[in-house]
Specification:
Number of helices: 17
Distance between the termini: 73 Å
Number of strands: 14
Shape: globular
Largest sheet: 6 strands, parallel
Oligomer: single chain
Strand content: 5-15%
Length: 515
């Protein structure tokens, strides 16, 4: 039976546009996007493809706000491996895993505040971060260094510090991926992960950082496309009333925005389709539909708008639920406008707790503190002439992307001009890979750079073959440090941000502390 829609058609259409957070292609706002903002679209999501320089980004966000002053400009800027501000160069900030390794909440807060300050300067006011996922499964293919670590209390206290730091700069935090993506072995970009743990485990482990973030005032929470049969045996969290409304809204008391993860991800789109998935998400309790990482065109916006309007008119989505979702989006936009003004007041920065040395160099200082060094059986001789860097490159997960450079070849080349580099592709024969590195290196010292070697047998075997031939090889692990140390010197950076590479290069050359 079709229900009567009490509001006007214009109001319904505007509310449907308000709850969308789409992306677009290019570094300037296309005409269609500006037109839809004028019609009621209240948020825009930015990705690496939209950003070249801080100045260009500031001009882009100013153009969006010229169309509508209260438009929410969102970004997926975690720092570390997942960066959009510096997708072309690598991040100036280490990610969560490095910060968790240091375990100094004052440092985490200062890093988040400086990152927030840079986002705010560029006109961004909603950050889809931090990741509050506990890295309880070391083989997780999508979280890894995006987590503060495997400890429940560790993840909770650093999630709180990150939320506080980010929001003190006037940028809303969006804590993710609720109710916890850390114990999965499937990437939800590709398929639907399933977590088979009981309710007691969920409450004692996965939910603890989210409960802490909500208590700390996180303005938004992002849902995960994961199935948790203990909570809902049929629908993933993003589409589950039991999880979004019953657990997150009512039991945990989150009154801020609930944002979905990207609806074009296969965990949703391949099963439900993005139109039906979006309707189900809003009905379940979500307030904002994130779409645009892959689908970034006007047709997608119109399809989702029309699907929501039709669902209300057909009685499949209560009009009050859509109106409530739109109101929460507008309330967050109002908060960001007030917060930007407060963060810009004279003396505001000095009122916040900061770590020694905070400011523009805080990222490098944090990366240096996160480095852990293990010396092999023989005393280590620093590399003093140009080495050969061999990068063992796994397939990048979609959240990180393959456009962002990683490693330390560029950083070593600054310290030791003439440094050469080569790439060892994923899945190659271990002896052939080792032979290629040896041939390319000739008589140079070898610096082997790996990422999550514990997850990739081909990488571990090739690395062992290389070290057997050249025992003086230096190994730099830039992912989760889950394997025993190897090489004449083993350096764990706990992330692959540009500053992590710089910190490792200083140790390799003996120009930094740590051994």
């Amino acid at each position: 039976m079709t229900t009567l829609v009490r509001g006007s058609s214009d109001t319904l259409t505007r509310d449907a546009l308000t709850v969308l957070q789409p992306g677009f292609t290019g570094t300037t706002a296309p005409d269609w996007l500006l037109r839809r903002i004028g019609e009621g679209l209240s948020a825009v999501g930015l990705f690496g493809r939209n950003i070249t320089t801080p100045g260009q980004l500031a001009a882009l966000t100013a153009r969006l706000r010229a169309e509508r002053e209260d438009v929410l400009v969102a970004i997926d800027e975690e720092g570390g491996d997942v960066t959009r501000l510096e997708a072309r160069t690598g991040s100036s900030f280490p990610g969560n895993y490095a910060l968790g390794m240091v375990d100094d909440v004052h440092l985490t807060r200062a890093v988040a505040r400086e990152l927030g300050r840079r986002l705010a300067e560029c006109g961004v006011d909603l950050n889809w971060a931090p990741s509050a996922d506990i890295n309880s499964n070391p083989d997780n293919p999508v979280i890894g260094v995006r987590s503060f670590g495997a400890g429940t209390d560790l993840a909770a206290r650093h999630t709180v510090a990150y939320v506080e730091g980010l929001q003190s700069a006037g940028v809303a935090a969006c804590t993710k991926h609720f109710p916890g993506h850390g114990d999965t072995n499937v990437d939800s970009h590709h398929a639907l992960p399933r977590i088979d743990v009981d309710l007691d485990t969920l409450h004692a482990r996965e939910l603890v950082p989210f409960r802490a973030a909500i208590a700390a005032g996180s303005k938004a929470v992002m849902s995960a496309h994961i199935l948790l049969p203990a909570l809902d045996p049929e629908r993933p969290a993003t589409l589950s009333p039991q999880i979004l409304t019953g657990l997150l809204r009512e039991e945990l008391g989150h009154q801020g925005l609930i944002v979905t993860d990207g609806m074009e991800m296969q965990a949703i789109s391949s099963v439900y389709g993005i139109e039906r998935g979006s309707v189900l998400a809003i009905a379940a309790g979500a307030d904002a539909i994130c779409v645009g990482g892959g689908l970034a065109d006007e047709d997608t916006v119109l399809r989702l708008r029309d699907a929501l309007v039709t669902a209300v008119r057909d009685g499949d989505l209560p009009e009050e639920r859509l109106a409530d979702a739109a109101a929460r989006v507008r309330a967050l936009a109002a908060w960001t406008r007030r917060a930007r003004g407060a963060a810009a007041e004279p003396g505001a920065a000095s009122q916040e707790g900061t770590a020694p040395g905070s400011g523009t160099e805080i990222g490098l200082l944090a990366a240096r503190r996160a480095v852990r060094v293990t010396v092999g059986k023989q005393p280590y001789e620093p590399v003093t002439s140009a080495p050969h860097v061999a990068a063992f490159t796994p397939v990048a997960n979609i959240a990180v992307g393959d456009e962002t450079p990683w490693g330390l070849a560029a950083e070593l080349a600054e310290l030791l001009p003439g440094t050469t580099t080569g790439t060892c592709p994923s899945g190659g024969d271990m002896f052939a890979l080792a032979a290629d590195v040896l041939a390319a290196a000739a008589d140079r010292r070898i610096v082997a750079v790996v990422r999550d070697v514990h997850r990739h047998p081909w990488m571990a075997n090739a690395l062992d073959a290389l070290i057997a031939a050249r025992p003086d090889t230096v190994v730099v692990e830039m992912g989760v440090n889950g394997a025993p140390p190897r090489g004449a010197l083993h350096i764990a950076t706990h992330g692959a941000a540009r500053v992590c590479g710089r910190a490792a290069a200083e140790v390799v050359t003996g120009k930094g502390a740590g051994f």
